[in-house]
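From the methods appendix. Each design record in this collection lists the discretized structure first, followed by the designed amino acid sequence. Records were kept in a plain field format so they could be parsed without special tools. The example shown here is representative of the layout used throughout.

RECORD:
C-ALPHA CELLS (330 positions):
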C-alpha cells in the first residue's frame, strides 16, 4: 500500500517553468533532462510495483528525513514486520560497469555512486533502531528500471544490492513475501516523526530572463486567445479554462520567484493583465494563503503541484474539457 503520493520534485517543477518561460543554459538543460528521466523512472518503478502487487506492505515514496543532524532522502521506503527496506531508483540507460567500488559509464568514470547513496541512507536508518517501537533490520537496494541499460558487476556481493530490470520482478516478489502487521504499522507511524520537507533550496531567478504572459498547457506556445472563462491555443487548438491557466502561472511565479512576495499587482503583471484585478484577487484568495496586513497583502501558494492545488481548493469549472482535470479525476 502506497502511503503517500509521488509528486514531481520541486526542482523539476522549477526547471520546467523556467524552460517554458526562458532559454535554458546547457547546464540547466542537462538538469531538466536528468530530473525528468529520474522522475519518469520512479513512476515506472511505482507502476511495476503496483503490477507485481504490494499487498499489506507500507510504502513511503520520495521522502526526506532528518536523523540526528543528517538529512537523508529515500525514493521508496518499504516497511514490513521486522524490516525496513530502502530502494534507490535509477533510470540510467547505456553501458554501466561496477567494479572495485567504482562506477563507469561507457568506459568513463560515473558521476555518482548510487550504492554509496543508498548505503548512507540505510546506515542512518539503522541508527533509528532504538527509537522505534519494534525492532527491524534494514535492507538496501539500488534498482535500475530502464530496460535499455546494460549492467556489469564483478562480485556476488554487488549482486546482493543491485537489481537490474531483469531481476525487478523477483525483487518485488521477495518484498511481497514479507508480512506487514502491527509492527509494520507502528514502525511506519513512528518513522513520520523524522520526516521533513524537501530542504533543497531552489535557485534565485533573474526577473529579466523570464517571459511574462501565458502559454499553452500542451504545446507551450505563447499564442492564446483568452476569454473570460476559456482560453484557446491558436497554435494547437487546445482549450483550457482561464482559471487553470492562471493557476499554472501562480505555480510558475511561486517557484521561479520564491524569494519574492507574491502580490495581486505582481500576478496581474505576470499574466500580462489578461484578467480583471478583481478576478486575480479572487483566485489568489482561493489557491493561496493570505498573509500580511490589509495594506500590504501578499500570497503564499498552498501547493506547487497542479492537480493537488486544484482538487484541494474547490476547482470545478463547467468549462473544463480535459479529462485529466475533470472533478472525478482531479
Ligand atoms: Zn497549444
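DESIGN:
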Amino acid at each position: 500500500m502506497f502511503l503517500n503520493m509521488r509528486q514531481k520534485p520541486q526542482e523539476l517543477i522549477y526547471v520546467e517553468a523556467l524552460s517554458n518561460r526562458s532559454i535554458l543554459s546547457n547546464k540547466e538543460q542537462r538538469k531538466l533532462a536528468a530530473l525528468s528521466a529520474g522522475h519518469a523512472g520512479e513512476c515506472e518503478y511505482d507502476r511495476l510495483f503496483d503490477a507485481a502487487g504490494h499487498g499489506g506492505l507500507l510504502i513511503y515514496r520520495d521522502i526526506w528525513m532528518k536523523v540526528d543532524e543528517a538529512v537523508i532522502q529515500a525514493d521508496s521506503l518499504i516497511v514490513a514486520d521486522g524490516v525496513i527496506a530502502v530502494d534507490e531508483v535509477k533510470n540510467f540507460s547505456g553501458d554501466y560497469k561496477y567494479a572495485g567500488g567504482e562506477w563507469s559509464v561507457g568506459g568513463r568514470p560515473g558521476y555518482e555512486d548510487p550504492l554509496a547513496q543508498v548505503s548512507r541512507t540505510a546506515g542512518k536508518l539503522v541508527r533509528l533502531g532504538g527509537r522505534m517501537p519494534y525492532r527491524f533490520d534494514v535492507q538496501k537496494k539500488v534498482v535500475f528500471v530502464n530496460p535499455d541499460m546494460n549492467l556489469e558487476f564483478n562480485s556476488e556481493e554487488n549482486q546482493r544490492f543491485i537489481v537490474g530490470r531483469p531481476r525487478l520482478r523477483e525483487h518485488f516478489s521477495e518484498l511481497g513475501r514479507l508480512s506487514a502487521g502491527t509492527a509494520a504499522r507502528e514502525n511506519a507511524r513512528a518513522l513520520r516523526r523524522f520526516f521533513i520537507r524537501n530542504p533543497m533550496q531552489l535557485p534565485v531567478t533573474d526577473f529579466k530572463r523570464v517571459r511574462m504572459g501565458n502559454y499553452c498547457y500542451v504545446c507551450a506556445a505563447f499564442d492564446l486567445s483568452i476569454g473570460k472563462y476559456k482560453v484557446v491555443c491558436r497554435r494547437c487548438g487546445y482549450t483550457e479554462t482561464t482559471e487553470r491557466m492562471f493557476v499554472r502561472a501562480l505555480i510558475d511565479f511561486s517557484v521561479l520567484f520564491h524569494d519574492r512576495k507574491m502580490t495581486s499587482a505582481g500576478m496581474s503583471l505576470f499574466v500580462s493583465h489578461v484578467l480583471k484585478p478583481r478576478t486575480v484577487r479572487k483566485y489568489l484568495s482561493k489557491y493561496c494563503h493570505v498573509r500580511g496586513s490589509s495594506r500590504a497583502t501578499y500570497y503564499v501558494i498552498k501547493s506547487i503541484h497542479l492537480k493537488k492545488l486544484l482538487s484541494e481548493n474547490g476547482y470545478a469549472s463547467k468549462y473544463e474539457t480535459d479529462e485529466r482535470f475533470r472533478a472525478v479525476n482531479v
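APPENDIX NOTE: DSSP finds ten helices and 15 strands in the chain.
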